[in-house]
Amino acid sequence: MLKLAPVLLLLTVYIANGTAQNQKLGVEVLIESLCPDSYKFMRDLSGSFQPLAKYLDLNIIPFGKSYSYINGSSVQFQCQHGPRECRGNKLISCALNRLIEQNSKVQFTYCFMVKYYVKKSDFTQCANEAGINIEDVLSCSVSDEAIQLQLQMETITKNYAITFVPTIVYNKIYSHDLQAKSLVSFKDTVCEILQNKTSGAIPECTS
C-alpha cells in the first residue's frame, strides 16, 4: 500500500471535503497541567498562535495520561503527576469552557501553567486577563461540571492512544513526523501544512 507523506495525507482530507482553500486546519493540543514538556510547548504556542489564528480551529485538551475510575458512587481521576495535576486539569477545563476566542484560550492556558506549574502561585492574573471570574472557575473545579468536562477530555484523548505529552494532532489524524516537527516549532509546522494546501503564500508565515 502506498504511504503518503504527513502533509500530503492531510491535504487529501481537505480535498475530500472539497474545501481545500477555505477550510480551517483543525488542531488538537493534548496536554497535562504539570507536564514540563506541555509547558514548553504552550510557551511556543502562546508566542506564535495569534498571527495564524484565522487559519486554525484549535482545541486544548487538558488530560494527557490520566484516567478515570469509579470509587464507590463517584468518578475519580488518576493523573501522571499526582492529585495536584488532576486539579490543574480541571481548572483549565473549567476556564476554557468559559472562553470563546481561541487566542484567549491559548494565552490563559500558558499563563495558568506559568503560575500553577512553574511558580506554584495564584492564577488570578490569568483569569483577570482572560476576562473570567476566578471564583467561578474555582467553584467549577470541584463540581460535577469539572468531572464531565474531564470525561469529555478523556474520550478525545483515548482516540489517539497517546504515548507522549504533549501530543499535537492535525485534522484528527495523528502523524509522528508532524508531532516531532510541532515540538520544535509549531509555527513552522503549521505554515508547512498551510502553504502546501494553498496556491499562494501565507503572509503570516513569511515574517
TrEMBL record:
Residues 1-20 form the signal peptide. InterPro entries: Interferon-induced_GILT (IPR004911). Keywords: Glycoprotein, Signal. GO terms for molecular function: oxidoreductase activity, acting on a sulfur group of donors, disulfide as acceptor. It holds the Pfam family GILT. The keyword Glycoprotein applies. Gene3D superfamilies: Glutaredoxin. Belongs to the GILT family. This is GILT-like protein 1.
